[in-house]
Amino acid sequence: MKLCKYFFFITVILFIISNFLTAEEKNTNKILSVLNLGLNGSEESIYIGGIFTIIKDNHTISGRILSKSENPFYAMDYNFLESNSEFSILYGKPIRFKRGADGFISFAVGLSYNRVVKRGEIIYNDEIDAFYKKDINSTLGIPLECQFVKHIVGPLGIGFYGFVNINNIESLYGGLLSLQFANFAKKREVPQVKSYYKNKKYIIEFNAFKFFHFACSDQLAINGCIGFPNTIKNCEITLPFHYRYSKFYLIHYELKQFFSIDLQIRKFLTLIKDGFYFNLGMRYFNIVGLYGVEPGDKTNSYWGISIGLGHRVFFTKNLYYSTQLNITKPLLGRMKYLDQAFAEEGINNKNFIFGVEIFNLGITF
Asked: The domain spanning residue 176 has which CATH number?
């Protein structure tokens, strides 16, 4: 429940920010209808969602169906959650892309009907099979959503869908990788802009995708960046950071928390700092957890050098999204813990650490 409060709180903040950003801006694009199909999961559970959204001016109306199903292999007692489904209506505010490929970011809140199925008392049990009653409960909830949609080709788009549902039986939170079908507008011409950073001193980035994605594994993950765009000509100095908290991480490695921070210089290939860039910097890791059968928590720190390539696109005057690939070479620290800490992300080589950031959202001011 503690993690659920974090996700509810941050989603509410994103909703308030979206209202602030669209308060003085009128959206003159045509009405957009979007069918959003998403999926996420792990060995323990699977999330499936279908969302239909209509955008008109600065308003969105969404209807969504979400379902979480647990793997009975991991059932430990009779109160095991078998499924959690919701049917919701939500109202929100969109930030429509003004340039380049069509798309939008939106945040919404609404009302939901929830149906929760848990395993009840045992009816019959032998050495092969066991049969249980089903405890079915219904309630009303408060759903929130965060959508990122980007047009790819024809009627197809890609993105992610973050969700939270607060109710008095079994709350839901997580994220879906999604495929969208919509009546997207044709690609707009990119205007020639001398600089999106004129009179701007700071940038802030937040990776909503990782925030909601890790929620499906009951982890709190906050990825972001603070930057200073006009410090060096055609470059910017940035401080990317990553924090993740998890109660259970691996069978042989119980991670309590993971933290990293970088000091990077980003070199852009264009004078307007919109497009491809290289980055070079130093990275610091701090990992706290229980390794193997050794008693007590272990705290380990590492230093390394990182290089990377990224791409940034401004879709309004002050807002952009970006993708970045990083490679880090650890130089100092106890390496035997490092490959365990990154195993969930598919990294099992302690000599190099590969990281991919997609759907980073940024603002300049």
From this structure: 2.40.160.20
